[in-house]
Fold these 2 entries.
Entry 1:
Amino acid sequence: VAKHEGLSSTKFYEHSYDDYAFEDQWFHMNLKQALEHNEFCMYYQPQVNIETMEVTGLEALIRWNHPSKGQISPQKFIPFAEVTGLIVPLGDWILRQAVEQILVLEHNGYDDVRISVNISPEQFKHPAFIDTLTAILSERSVSPSKLRLEITETMAIDHESAVIARLHKLDEMGVTVALDDFGTGYSSLKYLSLFPIHCLKIDRSFIDDITSNVKNEAIVRSIIDLADNLQLEVVAEGVESKEVLHHLQQLGNQTIQGYYFSKPMPTDQLLPWMESFAKS
Ligand code: C2E
Ligand code: MG
Ligand code: MG
Ligand code: MG
């Protein structure tokens, strides 16, 4: 029983080796099947420009609905998908879902809404990544500018020049890139100067207590200035309250993502939400 509880615990890396080995095996066996059995689905969370009060983007976030264990967090299963290599076919599936969702948005008149997709390092570094991405977009005649990739700087640790070359290729294609969890990496500034990127996503850990933590407030203020000087967009993630939103507004932040506007939603709730948001 204790071992099964490990699957739903958020801190499973602190478990004993036995628990780890058990979970490892469990994920190995179940992840591949999950893709075959269609147990994954995508949720979407709005990114709102608070000056115009328009939805400018949606972040695609994967969910796994296991038949007996219920919903399992991506924070838990993505690392296993990465070590097993399943992240490559799974990542392609995610990109296809996002592209279909872009078409749904276009058919409903949302022509200026971009979809952001999280890309794992292993997926990004795969030799076929750019070709696959190009094929997925062109098969459905979707403009590359409708897609944004969210990457983290950790992916450059071993393959810096290959990563930079790939980012330039994406830039040429017209696919924009956001640096996710910005501020939590180990050499953010170096990558800001080396990477051709378009957007910084300020990590939730700096945003949470911005109204009471003067250090985090100073950090966020500096990131907004930095982005402004580099002509990058900024998205503040994890905004849960009006107070935090107003504080960010005072600091000049334009784009907000967080529970304050909406939690990530399944596709059947997305269009109704967008419609009622536009009217409010
Ligand atoms: P991330 O890309 O930084 O995604 C943001 C996470 O913050 C999401 O968690 C989202 O639900 C959560 N979040 C958004 N607003 C708020 C808020 O106001 N308060 C709080 N407490 N949380 C908020 P989620 O969906 O559990 O995803 C966790 C991480 O798993 C993601 O972090 C990303 O690293 C990874 N992930 C999720 N979906 C995918 C995917 O399709 N592919 C890959 N490679 N990774 C994914
Ligand atoms: Mg993200
Ligand atoms: Mg993030
Ligand atoms: Mg993250």
Note: Residues 59, 118, 150, 180 surround magnesium ion (ligand 2) (CB under 6 Å).
Entry 2:
Amino acid sequence: TEEDLESIKLRTNLKDGKLTGIGKNKNLIVLQVEALQNFVIDLNYNNQEITPNLNRLMNDKSSVYYDKYYQLIGRGNTSDAEFVSHNSLHPSLEEPSYTKYENNTFYGLPWLLRDQGYTVWAMHGYKKEFWNREKAYVSQGFQRFISEEDYKFEKTIGFGIRDEDFFKQNIEYLKELDSIDNNPFYAFIITLTSHSPFNIPEEYQMLKIKPEHEGTILGNYLQSIHYADKEIGKFIEDLKNEGLYKDTVIAIYGDHFAIQSGDNEVDNMMTELLGHKYDYDSMMNIPLIIHVPGEEIQETISTVGSPMDFYPTILNIMGYKNEKGLMLGRDLTNYEGKNYVFPQTYLLKGSFISEDTMFVMARDGLFDHSKAYDLNTREEIDKNKFRSMYDKIIEEINNSDFILKKNLLKYYIENNGEVDLETLTETEILKD
Ligand code: GP9
């Protein structure tokens, strides 16, 4: 409705606040790390750090760490994490968003930074057709996609290119990108090695795994993400050595879970490791770290959020306004209200996670069969208190679907923010 659109417009119009503009005119590197869950951050495992480099980065005076950040993906897994992070819209639940909305008009982070004079490239060492990235990246606003065929490598791990080969060559690509027209750049970099099922060859296994975790998904994952962390550490060092660090904002986040909750044996093992119940909320918890060299900003921000909130959050730091498009998320650094995350895969549509509650929609879609939990006590609580929240969530997801299905941004941008909703052609009837 017109009213919904007005409220989304208001939300898109970010207010200045903490950290506003500290990244202005700087380069931006966003590193999306395959299957990086939050529980490994700062974890002491068998007297070892799993992610020493990310820990150091997170604890640095120039970093902000968002510790209540949850995945938000649809059918397109990793590619939906990209889609949601860049566009602040919900992913499609019918098909991967990059396929379904390949030809839509967008005004996400890549486009906005281009309008600010940035050169915008994406780098990922896998096949360019996978997840329809090559085609979708055009409408997403990327000017160049460096994909598997652009990297030289002989050895592979699991899915393909090793992070070490990937990062090393990215340094060269970044130098090239940095030299273009004296403009700042935005590089979106997606890693691959820490992909499930995480069984990396022995020569890369550097951790001492407890006997009871040997050969389990947990043991394998720890080795794999430890390897990824090591390569991320080297990459940051290389950025420093090559003069690419000082003027660059670096954001790092995980795309989605590694260890799926729901299996008793796995849940028990994880619960024992973490000292608290491993459930969908801890499974979906991914880290977000934003690092702005030279700034003293160290803080852990515990506002609940998701990739939906990435675009407004990074925009505030970069100091630009979204004057053309629409964003459904919040600037997590400055938002003072209670925020909610609406995962729609693994938890069904209508479910939510807030700072104190996890509401789990029933498989049969009936509100009466749904369950609500207090996240502090893990006790089941009265779900009926959340009926109106549930209705709001459905409405918000449907609004996002409407924007995508009607290609609303096309008309919105063409008409400078004015659009007559009634004239939008009928495409499909939206279902709950
Ligand atoms: C492949 C990589 C993995 O390009 O992004 O995707 P996933 O299987 O995690 O969705």
Note: Residues 428-432 have pLDDT under 50 and may be disordered.
